[in-house]
Specification:
single chain, 147 residues, mainly alpha, elongated, CopG, Ribbon-helix-helix protein CopG domain-containing protein
């Protein structure tokens, strides 16, 4: 089949982009332009674009679900800790409050330092918990929400 000649005028930036793509692919500018035009006028181009968008939305949905799960774990963990702490920590006598506050400040500073080291290493508590549960007899094949 004989090809027909077509002359087009392109903006300088568009021409540079076309030349750069042709160079990267090792193809002629005509071939790259022909493929782009064919894709543009093809009836299935919109279907491919829709499929690509759908894939990206699915990826975003999975990422959002992971964030939601991790947030739920974090909230539950904090609630359990607060409940445990409130039910097991005795009241401090008036005479010992200054010493208890000083010790609490020292412990808090140690906690913040440990948290900083852990975050710098990229260690995630929720990932550790997920891995621990996945490796345990209870966690195999069972969702954490079903327990």
């Amino acid at each position: 089949m004989q090809k027909a000649r077509l002359s087009v005028y392109l903006e300088p930036d568009t021409l540079k982009a076309l030349e750069a793509l042709a160079d990267r692919r090792g193809k002629s500018k005509s071939l790259v332009a022909e493929a782009a035009i064919a894709s543009f006028v093809s009836s299935d181009a919109s279907e491919r674009q829709e499929a690509a968008i759908t894939r990206r939305l699915d990826q975003q949905n999975r990422a959002t679900e992971r964030l939601e799960r991790n947030l739920g774990i974090s909230i539950e963990m904090m609630a359990l800790f607060v409940r445990f702490w409130l039910t097991t920590t005795p009241a401090v006598p008036e005479a010992a409050q200054a010493a208890a506050q000083a010790k609490g400040k020292e412990r808090y500073e140690g906690f913040v330092e440990a948290l900083g080291r852990r975050l710098a290493r990229g260690v995630s508590f929720t990932r550790e918990v997920s891995e621990d549960l996945a490796g345990s007899p209870l966690g195999e094949g069972e969702s954490t929400r079903n327990r």
